[in-house]
Amino acid sequence: MGDDSGHGRTSSGHCKAASGPGGAPVYFGKEAVNTRLRRWRSAWALCLGTLLLVAGEAYAQRAFRAYPGLERDEAAAALPSDYQVPGEFVFGRLMYPSGGGTGMRGGNWKEGGTTWTIDYPLGDRNFARLLRRLTTIHVRSVEQPVDLDDGDDVFNWPFLYMDTPGSANMTDAQIAKLREYLLRGGFLLCDSFFGSGEWASFQESTLRRLFPDRPVVELPDDHAIFHTVYDLPKRPQVRNMRSMRARGVGYRTDGVDPHWRAVLDDEGRVMIAIMFNNDLGDAWQYADIPEYPQADGNLALRLGVNIAVYDLTH
After folding, report:
1. Global pTM value
2. CB 310, CB 270: distance < 8 Å
3. Separation CA 41–CA 38 (nearest Å)
């Protein structure tokens, strides 16, 4: 970011953002980000090319498209004026058929309005906006809904976000496509689900079908994903807004304790990052709403920055 970006510099040499969620200052090591991104940009074409080779020949990306969200006006967002401008980083949102353990199902998932659209599109666009502000990544201002049934289009989008994964009920063909995508270098962030019931549904309907022989591991506090930009060795739960409004607690059912889990590839790279008993999507969605706890918003933003930079540099 240039000197006209509205950011200052602290005495420690870190950049200081004008404000984060709730108006709190947010700090990041700009040179650390720039160094990682320089390395990433030199490898990005090769990484993306590896993903694209699966098709055997060149093919066009799907154009941007928008769908109705399950939360309607609560998560609605205006279309940015620069939505057609490409970016190095695009927030891919995984579309999927519902039918799992959350009790929220029904409707034609290919037309939106089902569980894959929770926190959408406001959460996605808020995160893209804040990622632009806090890093030098060229971020597209809008998300990209990604349908695994759209031929090889998924291989155009190296980052995917899956909301409420305990409700997914993907076909065998969709599971096979997603597995191939991940093994070829793709990244999946699973978020916004709570409790033993949703975890069991996610394991049975998705994880065990994707990688029956790969364990789910708890990420240690010193893992790179918690330190790529911000040092986040200790992380409290990122709370769910609806539960706070309804019950005064930030979780559903018995989802009291946050977990930071993953499925790794043969080289130890995180293929699937699992934010269990957490709701980063809510924190991004309500980033500008004073009702949502400022500490949760700041943590979710910093985690999101770390995850994005980890994805781009691994």
Report:
1. 0.84
2. yes
3. 5
